[in-house]
Amino acid sequence: MKNREVYEFGQFRLDPVGKVLYRLEEPLHLTRKAVETLLVLVQNSPEVVPKEQILTAVWPDRVVEEANLTQNISVIRKTLGVSNGEAGYIETFAGRGYRLQGPVTRNHGLAPYGDEGEQAAERSRGARLGVIAAVAVSVVGLALLLTWVTNRVLRNETPEVGGLQPVTRLQGKEYQPAISPDGRLVAFLWARTGDASPRLYIRNLETGEQAEISSAPGHHSSPAWSPDGSRIAFLRIGPKSTEVVIAPRGGGSERVLTQISPPAYGFDQRLMDWSPDGRTLVVSHESTPGLPLGLLLITVENAVRRTLTQPNLQEGSDVDPRFSPNGRLISFVRSIHRGQQELYSIPVTGGPVRAWTQDGRQVSAHDWENGGGAIYYASDKGGEFRLWRQPISGGAPQQLGLFGSFPLQFCLARGKPFAIYAELNQDRNVWEYEIASRRWTRLIASTGQDASPQYSPRGDEICFRSDRTGQERLWLSKADGTGQVPITPEGLEPSVGRWSPSGGAIVFNTPKTGELHLIERGEDGQWKLRPLGHRGVHPVFSRDGEWIYAGGTDGIIRVPVGGGRADPVLSTMGMSLEAESSGRVLYFVRESLDAAIWRGDLDQGTVEKALEGLVPGCTSCWALARGGVYYLGTSPESLDKQALFYYDFRRRKSTLIEPYPEPLWPLGSGPFSLSPDGRKLLCVRLDSPSSDLNRLAISTPGMKR
Q1: Are 298 and 259 in contact (CB under 8 A)?
Q2: What are the start and end residues of each CATH 2.120.10.30 domain in the chain?
Q3: Who has the most CB within 10 Å: 383, 422, 653, 676?
Q4: pLDDT tens across 228-253, in order?
Q5: Over the range 59-81, which residues count as b (16 or more CB within 10 Å of their CB) and which as e?
Q6: What CATH fold (topology level) applies to the domain 2-126?
Q7: What homologous superfamily does CATH list for 152-160+174-423?
Q8: Predicted confidence (pLDDT) per residue in 367-412, tens digit
Q9: Does the pTM of the predicted model rise above 0.85?
């Protein structure tokens, strides 16, 4: 216990130094920015605090959009859980700001300041010392910079960033911006609230006029302008294939250049670009069944194809391709798994790839600087998403002043000093679905991504994955979602946690390395980690608890729980495994974009298709039941019209349960789980996915704004 100043309101205490919020004696989980937002409201209660004042206080000297503040307010309200009229209730004053209802008292007394608060305060003190040191260093650095400027070309100087302006404020989600070559128009996707599929629009940046480009049904994606700005190419993704379409920018007859399959559904990133000479499109495509997306070159004149990259399963998919301004290189993002993407480039003629990042973090988008002197990319390697500039000549990347709590997508204007960007606010949370009553209840939610829920064998606990602390960890809660605690250490970033039949252990793999781990609960209730010494994906226990099955590149293996040699059991690729109650059959999905569940007989070594109709890419959005399987499927018309189904193995028939409340983008959502009594499903849903387009002034020294 330490003597320090604290703010008290209702049953809550806020420590402004340690940046910790308590309910009575219990510390509550809030991100640092959420706590700082609450602190501004508490310190000014009962006054209305303007939005601009909060943004300036929480994000000083940074360019952030209002959605970050809105998200923080939503999270704080959910954490406090108080009603209007109670201390701590946050009122919204439309067009002005927010007010926290009191009374708030400021006390100089004892604060419940244990290890967590001590560490938080130490970080805070370290941050202040870091600022002081940074100021001292910057004084020296300024003199060095002046000398450096006189000896370097302008393209290696840090760009200026500022002047944020809204472009769209539509109901729903606007993303994947693409600026026309003349800088007057922006093409983008708009997924309207209540409308399943994103559509393609063009907006005039000068007049605000907006028009839809394609009225044909389908999931639209990846707008790319022709070099002269007269046409726009895009992808129209259907249930069976993807159309590569070229349309006049002012409307008129469109041309379907070619069709490619299977459809690449569920990727946030753009999957296509148009070459500067106008002759070629580059498309992310799964050219070989069972392998990740590679880069495919398609000629605009006659649709001749040439494969440029074909990564293996360990390397991941190649997405977000961009031609360099001179057309000689194609840069792209290699998506190794949901939490790791790296930036690469390859000559258009082929050859070895070059890695521009090796950070082991997310890269959500990138683009080339006008003239080709640098690549800009958005990454969360500093803990939150921000914009970076990587000079092509080499050296360390430069930090730019654009920040976001969620993945950023952006496009740089050619020859003009601005960019258009969007922040993808996609909050995954764990929901419980009561099958008989068809009632949804949100169980687990936080400021991070909460996914991959699994009921314990007795149904009294839930294991789930969350990145709410900044790194993905496995967490444990009671069946009603209360009592949430982490059980794996930081740094592992685990995949799905699957329970042993006894409930005393959980098995998982680390997506970056594929290493298999057990975490076992001791008599004292503490969880201890044990590596298994083997590699695989999506491991699951056998029904007798003696073996662990895991997918691999050469087939499905089994590993003794106590340690020992791994034995092959099925000679086929497999992921998202589930063992049947008899112990003689495994159900699984073969590949990352597979829409089918397969049945493997462990005695006979045979494999057959069990059902078709999963959402492509949502390889684990299903749960095995007695005599069948619950799964997330799609309608024949659209991949975005999703629904819960039950497939009866004996009757070989699917029955619609009910439409899913909103489309679930599959990557990072994780498996469904059926309660032991068969009455409830644990699922992942996207709560209020939203994003808007914003214009950001951005220029290197010497370029006028």
Answers
A1: no
A2: 152-160+174-423
A3: 422
A4: 999 999 999 988 889 999 999 987 88
A5: beebbbbbbbbbbbbbbbeebbe
A6: Arc Repressor Mutant, subunit A (1.10.10)
A7: TolB, C-terminal domain (2.120.10.30)
A8: 999 999 999 999 998 778 889 999 999 899 998 888 887 889 999 9
A9: no
